[in-house]
Amino acid sequence: MKLSRLYQPRNPIFWLALALNALSMALGWLVQNRPLNTLGLVVVLVFGLGNAIVGMWLAWQLVRDPPPGSPPPAPPQ
């Protein structure tokens, strides 16, 4: 597992993960700067948790899978 695999600008999963990070930032800003009632907080909480789970899954997919177009890894000997 290489953390350098997170940066794959030609992979659509990379851009989706980047968009989810921007959404996390927007949700955090919304919670801190806007007064929300209980329903609003619950909706933002559900979106935030779903966003975090999907974002972590996408990051794991990027780290786990080799970049597209790269040769397959050599089998261990």
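(the above was protein one; protein two follows)
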Amino acid sequence: MLQPRLVKGEGHFERRPFYSGGGLGNISQILVGWPANREGAGIAVVGSQGADFVDSTGQIKKQVRFSIEQRCPVTVARMDATGEYGYLTRDESWAVPATLFDKEGRVMWRSNRSWPGVDDSAPGDVRGDGKLSVVIGFNGGGGVALLDGQGKTLWKKEETNVWHVEMLDTNGEGREEIVHSNGKGQLLVRNGNGDVATQYLPGFYVSHFALARWGEEARPSHILVPISESREGCCKPAFILLDANGKKVTELESPIGDLFNRMSATPIRFGKGAEYFAVLENRLERSMLLLYREDGEIVYQEILGEPCLGMAALPKKDGERLLVGCTAKVWEYSPVLPAKTASARARPFGSNCCKQAFTQPTRIAHGFQPSRRPLSGPSAAGRER
């Protein structure tokens, strides 16, 4: 098993506790802005057992706990055009039905228990009217189905092993299409009627992927796909970033390949001239945080000894801070100020990081030098899904 450690990142960087929320479970989503602004807060931290709403300093404003305890990831679901919201289970991995909770954590509906195991589910808006739709992908030959906000089945199509599903407006018409993988390794796009419209990345086997922001967009409209390429007689793992139309935007190194099966990603601007693309991967009790410079080089790589999946860029007056959600706690990552560099170098990261109490900042003290060149790629505008 991977040992928690700093693999790469010889730079001035520190990690400190931002928030600790007992009873949250494993954190799968962090949103800045909506829906927290509806609850008098700025940040929504969503875990497998509930959601906490906090301000920009990590002070709690509201707590919600789900009426049925979950073990799978949970995401915020927009219920209507006014911004009302609920919570939807994700990556159910055959174990439990898809479940929609209201904003207070009460069950609104669960998917048909007579259906085969649920692989994944995702919220969206296939009609363009702001009303919730939920797509569910099933294991085996169970196919893919679309439900409305009340849990009523609108259609169900034949398909095999629908490993992962997302909802994304792929053509700019204001209605979201269904993007999913299947047992053949295809990355398919279906319209609101369930008909296959196109295939992305033909020639590559795709199982898991994630939506991500890129450029100046306020909401995710890009697709991050881990793939394996054949080069020089062998296979080389990588991430390919696609735009909503399936066009390749960039390719990034993937240092551990398909060891992880869940991921999230965000652009992050720590300060003037220091902009990166962060990827957080998870599988079971291990996670990995990667920071890519604008030229695609990995400048930071850390193995975390717990499930971590939620991630967001938090605006600050001197640049953004990276929030990473793990088990019932959120870490804040930021560069170390130049004045702290000398003392930071005196404490190697691996010597005592795992012995420190959660209440103490962890300084990642190596020679990390932020790039001074402006980016043409990601930026840190906008936060919500």
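Reviewer note on protein two: The two ends are 33 Å apart (CA to CA).
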